[in-house]
Amino acid sequence: MKCPFIWKVAVIMAICCIFALPRQALAGMSAYDIVKKSEGLLDQAKDSKVEMTMTLVNKKGEKRERGLSAFMKKEGEKKSKSILFFNSPADVKGTSFLVWTDEKKQDRQWLYMPALQRTRQISASGKGESFMGTELTFFDMGSKDVNDYNFTLLKEENVNSEMCYVIKAIPKKVEFYNEIIIWIRKTNYIPIKVDFYDTKGKYLKQGLFMNVKNVQGINTPTHIEVYNEQNGRKTIIDLKNITYDSGLKDDIFTERFMTRGM
To answer: What pTM does this model have?
Structure first.
C-alpha cells in the first residue's frame, strides 16, 4: 500500500515509510501490527481539508510565516489525489502543489509558480530538493512503496512521558535516507517522533508530532516540527479547521485548478 502526501504531514514522515512485515515481535505485536494499526487509525477518512500555518526558522532564529490550505481525496483503496495552496505572504501566494498517488505507479507531482506562470512536473531526480524552502523534501511530500524497505522492531522507550514502540526502517535501495527510526505511542498508536539519517548514515533531521486532538473520531497530530541538525533550520506546521469526509469534488485535484487557487 502507498500513503498519500498532503495535509497529514505527520503521517507523511512517520507512517508512509513503514508498512512491511518484519520477523521480530515485541510484547505480542510485530512492527507490522503496530504500524498497520497506526495507519488505520490515521487514515480513516475518504477526504479531508485543513488550514495550515507554516513557520520557517533559520539558524539565527529568524522566522518567516506562511498560510496554506490543503485537500486530499481517496480514489478507492489504491489511489489518492492531494493539492496544497499557499495563501500568504505575497511572495508565495498562488503557489500550488499537486500529487497523484497510485500504488502501481510512481507518484506524479506538479508545482505551480505564479511568478513564472509555469507548472513544473517534479522529476525523480528532483525529489531530493527542498520543498519551498522547508526542511521537507519533495520525496517527503510523496508516497513510499512498502516493498522498498526492511523493518525491525527495536524496543519500547519513554518519550515525553509517553511509552512508545521504536521501529527502524532501512531502504533496500538508498536514494534519500540511509535509515529512519520511528517512535509510535503505545496509548493511541499515533507517531510522536522520527529520526532521519542521510545517504552516508549521518544524522540529518528529526520530526516531532504533538498536540494530538480528536477530530471527528480521528486522533490527529496538529503541531509538527521538523529540525534539520545539519543546517540548523526548522520548519513548524500547525493545523487548524480540520474537516473529514466533506465530499470534495474531483475537479479540485487537477493541473487546471492549480492555476486558479482557492
So the answer is: 0.86
